[in-house]
Specification:
The complex is a heterodimer of chains A (about 500) and B (about 325). Chain A is mainly alpha-helical and about 500 residues long. Chain A contains 21 helices and ten strands. Chain A has two domains: about 270 residues, no CATH class; about 110 residues, Alpha-Beta Plaits. Chain B starts with a helix and ends with a strand. Chain B has one domain: LarA, N-terminal domain (Rossmann fold), CATH 3.40.50.11440. Helix content of chain B is about 35%, strand content about 20%. In chain B, helix 4 runs parallel beside helix 6 and helix 8 crosses helix 10. Chain B has ten helices and twelve strands. The chains are: A mainly alpha (about 500), B alpha/beta (about 325). Chains A and B meet through helix 20 of A and helix 5 of B.
Chain lengths: ~500, ~325
């Protein structure tokens, strides 16, 4: 079997694996699968979170499985494993030009391809000051986010049987459109995203300088036919001085060369190669400065360390600055959330919080007997909780339950409070015992002069855990008469409500 | 231009003119009426649920109270007093079991139907020759979690029963003609397939209507904006009793959720009731169940409303009833 056929099989396997893991990230299918495995293998997740947290969190050590061979071989991850890269390659293969000359043209290196190093520079600089933003562009984060927010819900709409009550996600169109753009651009320039923007590819490109094995061209045999470029995935100039930082080890050039001028050589002479990415130091510094400034300005915008009423984080989420040092916006928590309450944030958490998980009670509620979001989080932004830890029972009785916020009545919208009408659905669904919502019977005289007894509801802030099922089930559907805000959330001492 | 091409081009333009014109006329909505109502609540196609009752024969027992702790024995004893499951289920019947699976929590918290009870009823139906057993509910919490965590999914699997999930397409608007509900979206897919319907409800406290038993259990068949029902809860529960005329209801009082209902949330809210009530008159069954909770049926508004509307009787002792110990 040809080596490139082996590679294609490998790529198909990892695309299938990514889809399988995304599908398995669901209450009924979990069965102990390592559903965040591919995210844990992602070296950029491990490296960038090591910068922000000075640790390599639990399963992120798996990234060594990728990093160590990259140090020896170069960017084999991009050519052989990355499912987003494989999908782009597929699109280019299926829909790109068939004309040899155009394909050779499309696979030539362009100065624009240095942009990814500047992107990496900006993201790494932001990480230095504690803001983990790699998830915006990291291909695995992009892919899993697209699965969760855009692709699987649409498949559910067409084919059904994913969720009994279909899930929706705010701004799914935006996430879907970005994936569509990434894949479509491959028709114009194959692997446009990998070559131009991918910060993971850039990081691996930097690591590739240590490689022992490299594509080596024998100038004596080469006739400058440029056929090696016909399928070159990285636009790595195998026909001239190989750009090792761009080479994805797809090995198409070896297959294509009619004269045997190319081979994968152990310790070849480096004179014929460009070992470092061609990056202008001042531009890289400028990009880093931009990263630092945006991160700094974000913190000076007062969104991170000030309590935000709408910024409701899932149970087990760390305090906001620690959370932002870990969350990679992969949406695994959003995917696994059984009630659809977890949504990718747009503006709720400020600019740094884009696509991080927030609870939207109109969409769902935080299920009392559920801790799945923390179980699948690959980086510990949401801590894995035991049920007794979440509920504050057993050995955790002293600490009390994990609270995500506190519910408040909007009495002007509440049926028993403002409209002389019985209701108290909120009390009915309140899941804790004793209920955090209680009523007082009040006798009122209606406008028609009728004397009626009403149960008027109140929240006991000592019992309320902020799960939001009251808000979710409130019959005042468009803007509920009881709403949860973040005050009282356990994760952030500065946002506590009662003196405990 | 030769004649053939001339005719060809004229014909093509003519066909375009004719098909566009015909299409427009065919699609023409001349009066444009009814759009507002259709857009407001979807297609008006309404079905009426058939009655699932089996006629009483003279002297047949209408209500049976079994005392004991083991759900399987309680079910067997209660069904025995009523004349056996064969009185209700004929060979070849499709039987719908309607448990209360409203909340994603363990059955030991008393908020949902015990899986052991459902399994026992399903096995009796199977013995009577039921061709198919369906289990359906539209829970308040996420359905997958509710069926899994209450144990109802496992019990259904053990009984060879099929769960009919409350997917959006499983609902259809049903004509009720009640006091409050004239028509409502109902989990119609299983109801319209079934020959017999058996309700299996826990006996529990309820914050608004005092108790949730076998009549309130039908709430779990409704879709739509059912959280508005609380505004007239007693009238609506009586309407539910009018909407579904079940073959049999079983009220499981082995565990009683005596406070913090209908959700519970702590084993401290649950006491042992050691009773299972089965009967063909769900108003009577609920009246007996209400007494089990230590409360007076004469003071429960929905029971009185349902009695007054002739849907059953809250004075259950006037029926032909039996009581026995289950081994």
């Amino acid at each position: 079997m040809r080596i490139t056929t082996t590679r294609v099989i490998c790529q198909v396997f990892f695309v299938a694996l990514s889809l399988f893991l995304a599908l398995a990230t669901q209450f009924e299918h979990l069965r102990g699968y390592p559903v965040s495995l591919l995210l844990q293998l992602d070296p950029l997740v491990a490296l960038a979170s090591a910068i922000t947290t000075h640790t390599v969190y639990r399963g992120l050590l798996w990234a060594l499985v990728v990093i160590l061979p990259v140090l020896v071989l170069g960017r084999f991850f991009c050519g052989w494993i990355c499912p987003l890269g494989a999908l782009q390659q597929f699109v280019a293969w299926a829909g790109g030009s068939r004309r040899l000359r155009e394909r050779i043209q499309a696979n030539q290196y362009r100065p624009l391809f240095a942009a990814k190093y500047y992107a990496l520079s900006a993201l790494a600089a932001a990480a230095l000051v504690g803001s983990l933003q790699i998830g915006l562009l990291d291909p695995l984060c992009v892919l899993f986010r697209s699965y969760t927010v855009a692709l699987l819900p649409l498949a559910d709409q067409v084919a059904g049987h994913l969720h009994v009550r279909p899930h929706v996600h705010q701004f799914a169109w935006l996430v879907g459109l970005l994936l569509f753009a990434i894949l479509s651009l491959s028709l114009v320039v194959p692997r446009w995203f990998c070559r131009v923007l991918c910060p993971l590819g850039a990081a691996l490109g930097l690591l590739a300088r240590f490689s022992l094995w490299r594509i080596h061209r024998d100038p004596g045999r080469c006739v400058d036919c440029h056929l090696c470029l016909a399928n070159c995935q990285g636009a790595a100039d195998p026909q001239a001085r190989l750009r090792k930082a761009e080479c994805m080890l797809c090995l198409e050039c070896l297959e294509r060369c009619p004269h045997g001028a190319l081979r994968l050589a152990f310790l070849p002479d480096l004179d014929g190669q460009i070992t470092y990415p061609q990056v202008r130091a001042r531009r890289a510094a400028l990009a880093a400065l931009a990263g630092l400034l945006v991160a700094g300005w974000s913190r000076r915008s007062g969104r991170v360390n000030d309590p935000q009423p709408e910024l409701l984080r899932p149970p087990g989420a760390l305090a906001e600055d620690a959370f932002l040092a870990r969350c990679i916006k992969c949406e695994q928590c959003v995917r696994v959330c059984p009630t659809n309450v977890l949504q990718p944030a747009l503006g709720e958490g400020g600019i740094e919080g884009l696509w991080t998980p927030v609870l939207k009670m109109r969409r769902g509620y935080c299920e009392l007997n559920c801790t799945l979001c923390g179980q699948v989080c690959p980086t510990g932004a949401i801590q894995p909780l035991s049920l007794s830890q979440k509920l504050g029972v057993g050995e955790f009785a002293g600490r009390g339950p994990i609270r995500t916020g506190t519910a408040f009545y909007d009495r002007g919208r509440c049926l028993p409070w403002a409209m002389d009408t019985p209701c108290v659905v909120c009390e009915e669904v309140c899941p804790v015992s004793p209920k955090a919502i209680f009523t007082r019977r009040e006798q009122i005289v209606t406008r028609q002069g009728e004397t009626v007894m009403l149960q008027r509801p109140y929240v006991d802030p000592d019992k309320c855990i902020g799960c939001g099922i009251c808000e979710h089930e409130c019959p005042v559907k468009d803007r509920a008469a009881i709403r949860v805000t973040a005050i009282g959330e356990t994760r952030f001492a500065d946002n506590s409500l009662l003196l405990r | 231009m030769d004649r053939r091409r001339f005719l060809g081009r004229i014909g093509l333009t003519g066909a375009a003119l004719a098909s566009l014109g015909a299409g427009a006329i065919a699609l023409h909505d001349r009066h444009g009426t009814g759009l507002y109502e259709r857009a407001r609540r979807g297609p008006a196609a309404r079905v009426r649920l058939p009655s699932f009752r089996v006629p009483d024969t003279t002297g047949s027992v209408q209500l049976a109270i079994a005392r004991g702790t083991d759900p399987a024995r309680l079910v067997a004893t209660a069904l025995g007093m009523l004349g056996g499951i064969e009185r209700f289920v004929r060979p070849g019947d499709v039987v719908l079991l309607k448990p209360n699976v409203a909340f994603a929590r363990p059955a030991s918290w008393g908020a949902t139907t015990r899986p052991e009870t459902l399994l026992a009823v399903a096995r009796h139906c199977r013995q009577a020759g039921a061709a198919k057993i369906l289990v359906a509910d539209n829970p308040i919490n996420q359905p997958e979690g509710c069926f899994a965590k209450t144990g109802i999914q496992a019990a259904a699997a053990a009984a060879g029963a099929r769960i009919v999930w409350p997917r959006p397409e499983a609902f259809s608007r049903v004509q009720i003609d009640g006091e409050v509900l004239s028509s409502w979206p109902v989990l119609g897919a299983p109801l319209l397939k079934a020959d017999k319907v058996i309700g299996i409800a826990p006996c529990k406290d309820h914050n608004l209507c005092s108790a949730s038993m076998s009549m309130k259990n039908w709430y779990g068949l409704l879709g739509g904006r059912r959280n508005q029902f609380h505004q007239q809860i007693h009238r609506v529960i009586a309407d539910l009793a009018q909407m579904v005329q079940p073959t049999l209801v079983i009220l499981d009082g082995t565990r009683l959720l005596v406070r913090n209902g209908p959700t519970g949330g702590s084993l401290a809210d649950v006491t042992a009731g050691d009773t299972l009530i089965a009967g063909t008159d769900m108003v009577a069954v609920d009246a007996a169940g209400y007494e089990l909770l230590g409360r007076d049926p004469a003071r429960l508004e929905y029971l009185q409303r349902a009695s007054a509307r002739g849907l059953g009787t809250s004075r259950w002792r006037e029926l032909n009833w039996r009581q026995d110990w289950a081994g």
